[in-house]
């Protein structure tokens, strides 16, 4: 069918490097093309969009507060329609939350509403070999079906995995049936964008269809009240055996770098921590998965925000107190560009 928009799903469990991989793909985008990216986050406070930059030829749309395969299903359809209408993209990339089951997304893309508009191509799953050491991950039905439904599996973060972990992952993937079109590696999330145009294998099926529980979450993040200086807005959510808590801080809240880094690195029991913070007159992105943390510079943001995902509820009041202790004592003028 002519003129359909090619679309790819970049999936994988929490912290495998999906956002980094998509940023690397965007750098390979042909200059003549317009791309759009739909990003979904489990937590109520959207953070991933801060790590991606909109441009004239790349439009980013974020859906936070649950999973687009279930709790946010209607928002997925609306978000797709909006992106198609406003961005008029030559290619669409979808990044589900790491806790998202791909089946519902695939069904939506191939359903009556979009089959004449979108051309689903290879579903690509990133895998951190270290995750195979955690039986709570390998036994998670969503994790298993992310692999089952993928056309391509790319081993990522190999610099952090041992040779034994990499070998175990390669052996396990070789035993999958039906076999994958490709099992390869991604160097720090980078892989050839030509893989995006491999054909989707429609015979791939979920082993655990409908296994994804509904999310016990309040209204999505766009309905958040505005924070006041020193008084962040906090939202929590739960689902798929995980809980999340997120904070949005006023743009005039300025964090002390050393205290903030020590605070975030010292938080125990978190599966995933992501945040965008104002440090003086610059903004930084904090990204932690497993025990690995990184900090990168960001463009100006309208606020600071943090999302924590864990298996069990934490003492969120105590964590908020620690975060407030990381604020600079004196109020500073907003960075250039603030109203």
TrEMBL record:
- Domain CobW C-terminal per the UniProt entry, residue ranges: 244-327
Q: Which CDD domains does the record associate with it?
A: CobW-like
Cellular component annotations (GO), alphabetically ordered? cytoplasm
Q: Where are the transmembrane segments?
A: none
Pfam families given in the database record: cobW, CobW_C
InterPro entries xref list? CobW-like_C, CobW/HypB/UreG_nucleotide-bd, P-loop_NTPase, Zinc-reg_GTPase_activator
Stored SUPFAM superfamilies: P-loop containing nucleoside triphosphate hydrolases (SSF52540)
Provide the function of this protein: Zinc chaperone that directly transfers zinc cofactor to target proteins, thereby activating them. Zinc is transferred from the CXCC motif in the GTPase domain to the zinc binding site in target proteins in a process requiring GTP hydrolysis.
The molecule here is called: Cobalamin biosynthesis protein CobW
